[in-house]
Amino acid sequence: MPLWKSPATLEDLRERSRNTLMEHLGIEYLEIGDDYVKARMPVDDRTKQTAGILHGGASAALAETLGSIAAGLCVDRERQRIVGLEINANHIRRVKEGWVTGITRPIHVGKTTQIWEIRICDEQEKLVCISRLTVANIAKP
């Protein structure tokens, strides 16, 4: 059974990302499943650090994007919105070029908080970064 209270299409997610950090970093949504969201991000001049490898902050941005989008799908968007409380990211492997792909799945979806795990892998499907995002579900004014 799908987890989403406010389902969206890939085109909806693309539209929400126009003129935002996600668009600037080249994040592309790939798939929405019953309990996950998947996206990819290029490893290029926009996302590399000075040593020529994927910037940890770019990985964290991809992770927070995925977790936040998924969390937003789990609330009635007419009545609630989500705000980030905490994100952590463990950077495991460097990436010099190509694409990284992230997938987020829920650890906990409650009435007031949600916790999401985000796994980011390289093109060989090797783990690059693992992250956990905690958000609060808050009432809209």
What descriptors fit this protein?
single chain, 141 residues, alpha+beta, six-stranded antiparallel sheet, 3 helices, 21% helix, globular
Task: Describe what this molecule looks like in 3D.
This protein has 141 residues and is an alpha+beta fold. The protein contains three helices and six strands; from the N terminus they run H-H-E-E-H-E-E-E-E. The protein has helices spanning 10-16, 21-25, 56-73; strands spanning 28-32, 37-43, 80-91, 98-109, 113-121, 127-139. A six-stranded antiparallel β-sheet has the order 1-2-4-5-6-3.
Largest sheet: 6 strands, antiparallel
Order of helices and strands: HHEEHEEEE
State the oligomer.
Answer: single chain
Report the helical percentage. 10-25%
Number of helices: 3
Mean pLDDT across residues: 96
Kindly summarize this structure in a few lines.
By secondary structure, this protein is α+β, with helices and mostly antiparallel strands.
Secondary structure: elements and pairs:
Layout: H1 10-16, H2 21-25, E1 28-32, E2 37-43, H3 56-73, E3 80-91, E4 98-109, E5 113-121, E6 127-139
Antiparallel strand pairs: 1-2, 2-4, 3-6, 4-5, 5-6
